[in-house]
Design goal:
The longest helix has about 45 residues. The termini are far apart. By secondary structure, the protein is mainly α. It is rod-shaped.
Length: about 100
């Protein structure tokens, strides 16, 4: 049994596929070759847009990461400004 989580990977892999309707056919028969070719075509149609989906996924993950980093940067800048303000207040009170 294969579960969906086994396909959650960042790298490409090779899938070995078996078809039940080819199991009992002679591998050198024209019927076998015809059915195998149809299965291959169906599989290629099914996977045709995987490159676009993968690109969209990579872009989405990158954008999410970028947004998270921007948020952290904004928080750090805000903390820096607060620290500067506190330092200026403390400096001002020491001078008076």
């Amino acid at each position: 049994m294969i579960v969906a989580s086994q396909f959650d990977t960042e790298v490409y892999s090779i899938a070995r596929v078996r078809y039940d309707d080819l199991k009992n056919l002679d591998a050198f028969s024209s019927d076998y070759r015809t059915k195998r070719a149809q299965h291959q075509e169906d599989l290629q149609d099914l996977l045709a847009d995987n490159g676009q989906k993968r690109l969209a996924s990579i872009k989405a993950n990158g954008q999410k990461s970028l947004e998270e980093e921007k948020e952290q940067l904004q928080t750090a800048e805000s903390n820096l400004e607060n620290g500067k303000s506190q330092l200026e207040k403390a400096s001002s009170s020491l001078l008076h």
